[in-house]
Amino acid sequence: MKLKTINLSSFLHGFTALLLVSVLASFSGTAKSAAKPLDKPVGNYPLQCDETFSCPESLLPRVSFWVEVFSRWDTNTAIFHDKDNPHRVYSTLSRNEGCRRSRKGDSIDRERKRLKKELVRTAERIRNKQALSSAQKYLEGLFVGQPVSEMTRASERIRCQSGNQDRMAKALQQFQLYRPTILDALEQQNLTPELQYLPFVESAFNPEALSHVGAAGLWQIMPSTGRALGLKVTHAVDERYDPDRATYAAAKYFRDSVDRLSETAFENGHAVNASNLNPFVITSYNYGVRGMQRAIKQVGLSYERLLLEYRSPNFQTAVKNFYASFLAARHVAKNVDAFFPALPETQDTRIYSHNGVDLDRATSVKRLSSELGVSRDQLERLNPAIKKVVWQDRALVPKGFRLKLPFREAGWSAQLAAMAKLPAEFEKPGYVWHRVRSGQTACGIAEQYRASCSALRRLNKLNKRGTIYAGKRLKVPTSNGGIGVSGGTASASVAQSSSGNTQSYRVQRGDTACQIANRFSMRCGEFLALNGLNRRSLLQVGQRVIVSGDNAWHTVSRGQTACSIANRYQVSCSSLLDANRLTRRSTIYVGQRLRIPSRG
């Protein structure tokens, strides 16, 4: 193993004890204090560079900067530095959330403008051979060996980076929790175990992390990438948030990246070994495999050439720093006692022993909890991939989903078999479709359906004016939504209950309530009452509704009462009353048709 030490003397020559002085008089409400210079320069760190990961000499100052981002400055520190040469740190600013949520005119913006002026002013004084202040001498020391024009150019490259020390401390605790799974997944794919350090850069080992571009989970996987790797990403579940499944998916990604990038390198005449390939593999996780294939074709397997020569609109600061930040996080994690002495062990208990079962049909968490005797809290802890809409009882856990249940020696087969005999559940859409006619407006359509205009705009991603066009299909929000239970367990359009007394029907496109009633020799009003609908109710395609079957209805004759009718069909009086939305005080009439509930 070869150790390389970062030598910063060439660009820190002339560093004096008198450092940059803040000239900011006041800051916005998010600022804690004025900007201040460094009390000590970015340090030198001996990196472990071997046959697995290369550490190009030119990359070492960049890595040193990221080591200190992870270990020196917390998330409430904004670090102002050179975008292309990160180790050139000009000043820091104590501010809530560091560089995040910055806007024009705030303390971040003002400090960036101040530094720009100071760099330009210093360059002019050096050209004119004028005396420099202590702050200007500090800046001059950052550019030793560089032409004065470089200082002027650098004034356009001032970047703000938030510190990460506190997040890193938490991540190091979480690391031990997920490490066994990560190592197993990497071993299965015959990959280097050193890849275990990448989540430090991606999510700081937070399995609930979500980026502003939609990358999610421990490994910050994009939705399309997750689906390509075999993860379920639907309206109801998102397996990117399941640390186990996401980890094995990430390992598949790396295996594919290694194979494809190796093939591209061979095809372009380059010798391939782990040391020169892995920087490209790591970078592909941020930039994409195809992007790295294009880069290899252009600059070969030289990571130094990649940073200096490769040009692409998307190959910008974040991508260029990705491999350096990985090496830095790896260095900190391998030397945790030096950077975070006496770090407490994690008290997290998010990994539990469990049984895994594959659901043979879509099921609500309410049913799972009640029929299996498992609390919703337990189910939620074990199944982080299930989305909020399911826990809100507005969607079902989908068929085929591998559900985790508390570990039982005997398993859950008997309970699942009993649950399979219950009527099937279905999702009731929370919207209906409407085709826009000439002259209609978004709010007019919403009013027609007694819906919220703003909700309609949000559902259809319309602009604030709600611009729509004739012929366009709109989703109109409804109060229905949620979960329904079918009258039977069959999946066909018509399903009959085990007693033979009632049937359910799955609504098809174009169906209306009265058409369905007529098809099953029912009165339209009876059909509506049986299903708790009214004339204004909207049926959803795929919705299960109850229709009559043989001997399921009784026409009231003179002298009959609800309870005498119930007795005739050998069902309880209360069941008959409930089935017809009646009470003991309700009056029934000659000729009225009553539904006879199943005796089952």
Task: Based on the model shown, name its key terms.
600 residues, alpha+beta, Lysozyme, 11% strand, disordered N terminus
Explain what you see.
This protein is an alpha+beta fold and 600 residues long. Strand 12 and strand 13 form a beta hairpin. It has a three-stranded antiparallel beta sheet, with helices on one face. The chain has a three-stranded antiparallel beta sheet with strand order 12-13-14, with no helix packed on it. It has a two-stranded antiparallel ribbon with strand order 1-2. The radius of gyration is 33 Å and the shape is elongated.
Quick structural overview:
With 600 residues, the chain is an alpha+beta fold. The chain is 39% helix and 11% strand. The strands form 7 sheets. It has a 3-stranded antiparallel beta sheet, with helices on one face. A 3-stranded antiparallel beta sheet has the order 12-13-14, with no helix packed on it.
| Estimated radius of gyration | 33 Å
Structural class: alpha+beta
Query: In angstroms, what separates the terminal alpha carbons?
Result: 75 Å
Number of strands: 16
Largest sheet: 3 strands, antiparallel
- Structural domain tally: 5
Q: Strand order within the widest sheet?
A: 4-3-5
The helical percent reads 25-40%
Average pLDDT? 84
**Poorly predicted regions:** 1-32, 488-501
User: Shape, please?
Assistant: elongated
- The total count of helices amounts to 25
Strand coverage percent: 5-15%
